[in-house]
Write a structure and sequence with these properties.
heterodimer, A: alpha+beta, five-stranded antiparallel beta sheet, 7 helices, B: mainly alpha, 66% helix, globular
């Protein structure tokens, strides 16, 4: 029993170490697959990590953050309000939004521990710079949750996610409505303040 | 042939909902939510009701009842919902889903002892997961104004009509013994509330304004169900 746990842990960490170097030119679907596989392997090997804020944060910061474009995400969530924000406000918004998403994601990870993930084949042309990678998280009750990652190719050739669509609900669209409501009623500064208060 | 059938079914269904879509011409605060001030009032009422009565009951049930029993209870209600889904599969002429849901209900009702065990899922038979609200959407009816329904939560004009119609074909509300029927309906509500715990925790962490968050998630989710997970731009 103990040995098999170690074996899983070792496999997980080998995957982590191996994957760190190759991300630069990986295809978007392969990237989603390797990151999801790594993270679930780590969680399976060391479930205690979910109760350890420091470890969880470092897992997310090393494995997940580099693969998301938070500036694009924030801009999309702001929509036409982005132009209304000053450069300082834009920086503050991006920073706070990132913190909020990381916290939400850490909380959601606990639900993923015992589930398997199916990766759907990606239909993509070599010249594409914007694709949707589709996955399905299988739950014990037979209801699969589709999770789609919208990804874009940056100038340096790396792929980064800029939206996550869970069961048809887009993260960016959801926040766009929230941001819009706050800005409409109280302005951009109020939004920054609300995000800061939420992240405290 | 198919298109003639499509329009015939559409007109039958749409006529029942026309009255409601007429309400859409209010002065709109947010698109799709002309009744926002009223909805927010109901939302706040629902939250209070939930906080003091509903959630404590669901928590008590969740803590007191052993996991296998809870799973069995969920399975029975899911089986009833699969049976309801059959009608909507048929109304949307979705043959594959119709076959799956029929197969699920037959297997789970007989070999699964009245739905207590879900044998169809491990056999790879997926849920059709259709309802009358989705059926109306499939035949072209828009969601109409967003509605926060007292006690029941988020809905839309279309989905409220759907829910009413689904109630008519619901195996559980057609149980003839009144005490049994009421107990089953109560248990179903508690079971559904327990199922919302993870989503509730996520929303608490993620949302700046829970009302807006829930509205956006609800409307997007329903639209996605109507399109069977496809996005408009996939077509």
């Amino acid at each position: 029993m103990k040995f098999s746990k170690w074996l899983i842990a070792l496999t997980g960490f080998a995957a982590l170490a191996g994957a760190a170097g190759v991300h630069a030119q990986t295809a978007p679907d392969a990237l989603v697959k390797s990151v999801s596989t790594e993270v679930t392997a780590v969680l399976k090997a060391d479930p205690a990590i979910l109760g350890n804020q420091a470890k969880l944060k470092s897992l997310i910061e090393t494995k997940l953050l580099p693969n998301f474009s938070f500036s694009r995400m924030t801009q999309l969530a702001m929509g036409r309000n982005w132009a209304k924000a000053s450069p300082e406000q834009q920086t503050a918004l991006t920073k706070e939004f990132q913190t909020l998403l990381v916290r939400t994601y850490s909380g959601a990870l606990a639900n993923f521990r015992n589930n398997t993930i199916d990766f759907r084949p990606l239909r993509m042309q070599p010249a594409d710079t914007d694709v949707i990678v589709k996955t399905v998280v299988n739950q014990a009750n037979g209801q699969g949750i589709p999770i789609d990652y919208s990804m874009e190719k940056g100038a340096d050739g790396t792929w980064k996610a800029y939206d996550i669509v869970v069961a048809g609900v887009s993260l960016v669209t959801n926040y766009r409505e929230e941001f819009n409501t706050v800005i409409r009623d109280q302005g951009v500064d109020a939004l920054v303040k609300q995000l800061q208060a939420k992240n405290k | 042939m198919k298109s003639v059938l499509k329009s015939a079914i559409f007109f039958t269904l749409a006529s029942s909902a026309l009255v409601l879509s007429g309400c859409a011409s209010f002065k709109a605060a947010a698109p799709g939510d002309p009744l926002e001030p009223i909805n927010r009032g109901v939302f706040s009422f629902n939250n209070t009701f939930d906080h003091y009565l509903f959630k404590p009951i669901a928590k008590g049930y969740d803590a007191a009842v052993p996991a296998p029993v809870k799973t069995g209870v969920s399975n029975v209600f899911q089986n009833a919902s699969d049976a309801q889904s059959i009608v909507s599969d048929a109304l949307q002429l979705k043959g594959a889903k119709l076959g799956d849901d029929l197969g699920r209900v037959m297997i789970n009702t007989t070999f699964g002892l009245g739905g207590l065990f879900d044998l169809a899922t491990p056999m790879g038979i997926e849920r059709g997961n259709e309802d009358i609200g989705q059926t109306l959407g499939y035949w072209g009816l828009g969601a109409g104004p967003y509605l926060m329904v007292p006690f029941l939560g988020p809905s839309s004009a279309r989905d409220s009509v759907g829910r009413y119609a689904d109630g008519k074909i619901d195996p559980i509300s057609n149980v003839s013994s009144v005490p049994v029927r009421n107990s089953l309906m109560g248990a179903r509500v508690v079971d559904a509330r327990v199922g919302l715990f993870p989503a509730e925790a996520l929303m608490k962490q993620a949302a700046l304004d829970r009302y807006t968050f829930m509205r956006s998630a609800y409307l997007q989710r329903r639209q996605s169900l109507v399109l069977d997970g496809k996005r408009p731009k996939d077509e």
